[in-house]
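seq as requested:
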Amino acid sequence: MELFYSRDIAAGGRSLDQEESNHCVRVLRHTAGDVIHIVDGRGCLYECRIEDANPKAVGFSVLKVEEAYGSHPYELHMAVAPPKNIDRFEWFAEKATEIAVDRITPLFGDYSERKVFKKDRCERIVISAAKQSHKGAVPQLDDAVSVRNFLAGTFDADVAKFICYCDDTDFLGVKKISIREALGKAAGNKYAIMIGPEGDFSRDEMALAVEKGWQPVSLGTSRLRIETAALTAVAAVYLNYI
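struct tokens:
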């Protein structure tokens, strides 16, 4: 079953945009009367009938709606520093969407090599990954923010906050634990996880994070690339629920 995406369907929109319409009619050869399936990016799957097979704006009617399509039993917010090669961040965003993530925030840290993030292309990749992996919800992709501004943000009290860090944390006066142990200690099912840039988080950033209630965690002894570390964290949360 192929899926199409419409950001307007929940608000009453009854046509696909030009890109989706072209794919529906000219690539997949759908015609009037065919039944297609559309996700709204908010978690719902719509079964629809094509009323107008216009390759620029496919018109449809809604037959039925399924809520929480392809959902997962937790909430995960990943805050990740994009590497110098932006293709690697886009790969992470794609694969994290396929597994299960709710929000992605690009971070700029003290040691970041990349200082610019343009999210338009990444948003398209995330939407495509959500459709491919049969998910009704598309993860929220934020504008990039500095580590300090991110740490200054507010989080609900029931969110377990983990910051992945390669070096020891003796200078912080707090013990770094494995992500498995951290997940086991979490009281609820809401998580926020931070992954730093190529040079990791600075000591000042780590001190601020601990002050704000973030638990330093380890992803094991292997030295991982940014995108590998981020996806490992996503998979750790996912595997904790299956």
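The chain has a mean pLDDT of 97.
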